[in-house]
Amino acid sequence: MDWPVNCRTDTKHFKSSGFELVWFDGDRPTALREFIKRATVREELFYHQMLRIENSKVIRQIKPRMVNTFDKRGKFNDPKAVLREIERTT
Q1: Domain boundaries, position 29
Q2: Is residue 72 classed exposed, middle or buried when 0-12, 13-18 and 19+ CB atoms within 10 A define those classes?
Q3: What is the mean pLDDT of each successive set of 10 residues along the chain, which is 90 residues long?
Q4: Which helix (H) or strand (E) is 22 found in, with range?
Q5: What predicted TM-score, i.e. pTM, was given to this entire model?
Q6: Which of 31, 76, 79, 88 has its CB surrounded by the most CB atoms within 10 Å?
């Protein structure tokens, strides 16, 4: 499930039904760098989305398991490494 902020009710329903919520997170400067490299939308929309997420307090409300999608060098983790991280902590 992608995160439009208005889907909070759905995520609470998933959690109350026994699903584990996972939030793919990462270093914000690295995320910004990768966002800019994509060059699909204006940079200001990145900041707008970060502000919406912070102001919504969604992470505090749904209490997901946080999974960092970047490695220590600021590169995207291999999808298999992300999956191993999810499996390791379940």
Answers
A1: 22-88
A2: exposed
A3: 61 86 89 94 94 88 89 90 83
A4: strand 22-25
A5: 0.75
A6: 31
